[in-house]
Request: fold
Amino acid sequence: EPEVTQTPSHQVTQMGQEVILRCVPISNHLYFYWYRQILGQKVEFLVSFYNNEISEKSEIFDDQFSVERPDGSNFTLKIRSTKLEDSAMYFCASLKGGYEQYFGPGTRLTVT
Amino acid sequence: KQEVTQIPAALSVPEGENLVLNCSFTDSAIYNLQWFRQDPGKGLTSLLLIQSSQREQTSGRLNASLDKSSGRSTLYIAASQPGDSATYLCALDRDNYGQNFVFGPGTRLSVLP
Reply:
């Protein structure tokens, strides 16, 4: 069964550093998403991406964040200058349209 | 702004019991409601999707219902097993494209052998 994959599974970085989280969505899906979950809190929507552009973003997704689909398969989330409060689990998801969202296993980001 | 709550926050039951998890939302203008399972430190596994035109969906021992007018969904788990122990999340979107998917806080379920 096709699945969403994410790399790395765990990323440790120092405050102020840039990080790129990578996702490979399911191949025939058209809509792509990033979510985050701070430890012990709700899963929160960050951004949705369709047709090579952002279709919606939340208040959390400020200028420090960016997304890109650099080729036909990868979907990346970049955090330009990480802060301690960016420490969280980041989930990528994809959707075909009208059906259920499929989530990846997540990347745990630890900012020290 | 859509607010999603889940009751109870935690539930502990003996193996074999039938149980109901509740999800409430404030804005009935939703398109899809999806139930997920999350194991500790892991990703989200989709369990059931109910589209707004549907009232329920079933998969094995799971049955989910949706009542948009009252802003409620329930997840019914029959004959619970220890392997069902996880956090169960409901999430809603307001269109067919997953825009601004809003999650509830989850119900942490423990099924005791």
Summary: The CA atoms of residues 58 and 68 of chain B lie 18 Å apart.
